């Protein structure tokens, strides 16, 4: 894939600020497309939302498998904390709850079978890209995908959590059907509040800055893959 990096980017910025600014326009566009707005506003019908979660489960499965494989890689190690961040188990629990089936059985549900039989092209492209990065000799750009996914769930995801709970009459206080958006504190297993989530985001950004350092080539590549990860 040919990659052209714009000279408009300020490569002197720390990695977290560089990626946030460089992908801000794409995020704003994604938030305001029809599907994104319906998701944020809790306007997807229940089946549509579960379908979205199923795709996201596959995305996170590929991403977190790659992060685990390369947990000690220098650019990824500072932000690797699956106990704190991993979303795949939470997604599986949410899907199970929303479908009203045992967790071990939801992948056999007709909705998931339909997804696998005829998956949307952007979904296929995204999961394939993650798999290729996981299998590459330099998996650094998984960091850009992880940044977009995890910090998105910690930020806008908190709004979605409330809207989803209202739309589908879920007990969000107990995490039933909304575990995707629930995080634990950095230093304990207690539920994180908004202040705690802010601390997690700062920890993550510091780790990104440490892992990438001042390497402008890696910053440029991460911008490209960060833009490609707005799913």
Folded structure, characterized:
There is one protein chain. With 231 residues, the protein is mainly alpha-helical. The chain has helices at residues 15-31, 34-40, 46-69, 82-85, 88-99, 110-117, 121-135, 142-154, 156-167, 194-212, 216-228.
What string gives the helices and strands in order?
HHHHHHHHHHH
The portion of residues assigned to helices is: 55-70%
Low-confidence stretches: 1-5
Which structural class best describes the helix and strand composition? mainly alpha
Task: Specify the biggest β-sheet.
Answer: none
Give a short overview.
The protein is 62% helix and 0% strand. The chain has 231 residues and is mainly alpha-helical. The radius of gyration is 17 Å and the shape is globular.
For the structure shown, list the relevant keywords:
about 230 residues, mainly alpha, 11 helices, about 60% helix, about 0% strand, globular, disordered N terminus
Chart the SSEs and their pairings.
Layout lengths: L14 H17 L2 H7 L5 H24 L12 H4 L2 H12 L10 H8 L3 H15 L6 H13 L1 H12 L26 H19 L3 H13 L3
Helix pairs in contact: 1-11, 3-5, 3-7, 3-8, 8-10, 8-11
